[in-house]
Amino acid sequence: MKLIFEKSVAGRRCAILPACDVDPVELPEDFARTEAPSLPEMSETDISRHYSELCRKVHGVNCGFYPLGSCTMKYNPRIDEEMAALPGFANVHPLSPAEDLDGMQQVLDEGYITNIAVAESCRRKGLGRAMLGSLIDHCRESGASFLTLEVRQSNAPAIALYESMGFLPEGRRKNFYRQPTEDAILMTKRDLSL
Question: For the chain, where are the E strands, in sequence order?
Fold first, then answer.
């Protein structure tokens, strides 16, 4: 089998990426190349054929018997692709600021509330309870078996709300919060049917 560079044809191009929809991030000048990299010039079809042929020459977990306990069993690209395609990850850009992400993440059967907040002028009107109830319902409907969150140890109203909705303290995260530095109480709701 030829190397991809041996299959390269000068001037052949391939444009399979969509237009960039985020602001570019510039590398520091120390990391910038002084000359263009030597990349193979191939069509999309030729690239696909090359890697399909290469794939047929590899033996692994997806194409036959593989002894259990092998170091290579720890990395399974098929499972990684399935995890990356889950709704909580699929459309999240790696450089998205945390404050722009949803208030809950779910991986397999584990739900995690990342943020729930009510403006001070809107508190004591049941909005926090309604939002939390909605997150619990969503988590249950999407197959989660439990839900966790962190709360500032000094946030007594939030702790009371979480406890009233079935969350129990299960641990402490030392110096979890900044400005001011404070421990977080880790709370978990194990029964999402309530």
Answer: 104-107, 110-113, 146-152, 168-177, 182-189
Residues in CB range of 127: below 8 A, 6 or more apart = 118
Q: Answer yes or no: 177 catalytic.
A: no
By CB atoms closer than 10 A (0-12, 13-18, 19+), residue 155 is middle
Name, in order, each residue with C-beta under 8 angstroms of 4's C-beta and a sequence gap of 6 or more.
40, 42, 47, 50
Among the options 6, 51, 82, 150, which is catalytic?
150
Residue 150 appears among annotated catalytic residues: yes
Q: Which of 53-57, 119-123, 144-148 bottoms out in mean pLDDT, i.e. has the lowest?
A: 119-123
CA distance 101 to 57: 41
Contact indicator for 22, 93 with CB cutoff of 8 Å: yes
Structure tokens at 170: 């299960």
Among the listed residues 82, 162, 163, 170, the single catalytic one is 162
pLDDT in tens, 46-90: 999 998 888 887 766 666 665 555 555 455 566 566 666 666 556
* DSSP class of 157: H
